[in-house]
Amino acid sequence: MLNRIWIVFISVLATMILSLPALAHEYWLQPDTFILPNEGLIQAHIKTGQDFRGNNFAYLPLSVESMQIHLGDKSQPTSSRFGDYPAISEVALGDGLNILSATTTPTKLTYEKPGKFESFLRNEGLDWVLAEHHKRQLPETGFTEIYSRYTKALVKVGSGKGADRKIGHTFEWVLETNPYTNEQNKLVAQLWWQDKILANHQLRYFIQTGKNLTTDIAITDKNGRANIPYKPGSTYMVNAVYMVTPSKENATKYKAVWDSRWASVTFATK
Hints:
Layout lengths: L1 H17 L7 E6 L3 E2 L4 E10 L2 E5 L6 E8 L2 E4 L10 E4 L4 E9 L2 E5 L4 H8 L3 H9 L7 E15 L13 E5 L11 E7 L2 E2 L4 E8 L2 E8 L5 E4 L6 E10 L3 H7 L3 E11 L2
Parallel strand pairs: 2-10, 10-18
Antiparallel strand pairs: 1-3, 3-4, 3-7, 5-6, 5-8, 8-10, 9-10, 11-12, 12-13, 12-16, 14-15, 14-17, 17-18
């Protein structure tokens, strides 16, 4: 019981620390293994960090809006409960490509140091936001942004057959090539925003091969697609950030002037 309380305390503390302004903090689902030989137990951590390294978080319902598992056309909520560590411990829905997904509730972030917001925008290819920020005559410091996360993890169970698909996230990656069954060793990801493809948008990918990490940026094409380099025996995360002005409701509730959305997908290669 004490261990469970300590894990929850550390998770809450880490959440507070990672809410401080920084260049970027990715959020993703990290299964203990992306490849299960049969219909076993899928265990996965919520992680937040940088360069594909970060802290593991317990499941905290107040910070998670939705957490589900999908296979083919079937979707169902996970059985996660407050303080669960790992956050997901779910029996696979069956043989094939099982998809874990999570969306978070909005979190506030206030920029107190000059240059932090500008550095974040340039790092994520969102330079237009800075021009709009000045146009709206917003201050350089002391303003608030809210951010929400949309993340997926693709897990091979048994044959791993099947395909990734849109599951209804506002901001979402769909991997068009199954990394576990594709014989062409090709990885193509498509980015969607509110049911429309998002063309000419920056993304960042991370490839962990043994102890070596490869990271780079790319731009989606006119069809919202990006080709990701294929490396066998590796773990991947593809991430993108989108910025909008907050709804009137969120602007009032959080006193926010910007609303950032983060989409990620993790998977492995055979």
